[in-house]
Specification:
By secondary structure, this protein is of the alpha/beta class. Helices cover 14% and strands 12% of the residues. An eight-stranded parallel sheet has the order 1-2-3-4-5-6-7-8, with helices on one face. The longest helix is centred in the N-terminal third of the chain and has 16 residues.
Length: 190
């Protein structure tokens, strides 16, 4: 009985200290900050047509939100973000598969929704920590086989994409541990 309060205390202590809290700063706020001290940046809604060179100085960033800009590509220089765990590039003008994501080995959450991406790079199989893949509302009609290597994958959002029942069934059965989000299948595709 005397051991029970100690176990409860240890459990509470571990839970409170193990939470990964990350302070996220707006882009305007980090302009004069020491890049080595910033781990989360929100650069959304800035109407960027390209990534500013200054962003690459923040090599320790773990969270980067560049959503709702006008980016047409994610440049290879973004490969400097080796610690990046979350990348949100939702609602840009991305057309090509962002190959640079394959240089971000710690990536866990990848949000590429509402772009014009037609395919994902085969090297996505290197993202062994990836848990969330959000690609809804893109003109994607296939996934590379390398997605099957993503053992930590928990959820894939492919809503607002016209996909046939065979496609949906294949991926749901091939990766039953993954929560797949599809719209009702379209029989007009297959």
């Amino acid at each position: 009985m005397k051991l029970l309060p100690v176990l409860i205390f240890l459990c509470i202590t571990k839970c409170s200290f193990s939470q990964d809290t990350l302070r996220i700063y707006r882009w305007e706020a980090v302009q004069k900050a020491n890049p080595d001290t910033i781990y989360g940046i929100d650069a959304s809604k800035l109407k960027w047509e390209e990534i500013p060179e200054k962003l690459y100085a923040f090599k320790n960033v773990k969270y980067l939100n560049i959503s709702k800009n006008k980016l047409k590509e994610l440049p290879l220089e973004m490969g400097a973000f080796k610690s990046l765990k979350t990348l949100d590039a939702t609602k840009n003008d991305l057309e090509n598969a962002p190959i640079v994501i394959c240089q971000m080995p710690k990536l866990q959450k990848l949000h590429l929704a509402r772009n014009n991406i037609s395919s994902l790079p085969a090297c996505i199989g290197y993202l062994t920590d990836l848990k969330i893949l959000d690609i809804w509302d893109n003109p994607i009609n296939s996934l590379p086989e390398e997605v099957l290597k993503l053992q930590n994958l928990q959820a894939v959002d492919m809503r607002a994409i016209m996909l046939g029942p065979e496609f949906q069934k294949r991926w749901q059965e091939g990766m039953p541990q993954v929560k797949w989000y599809f719209d009702p299948p379209c029989h007009c595709v297959e």
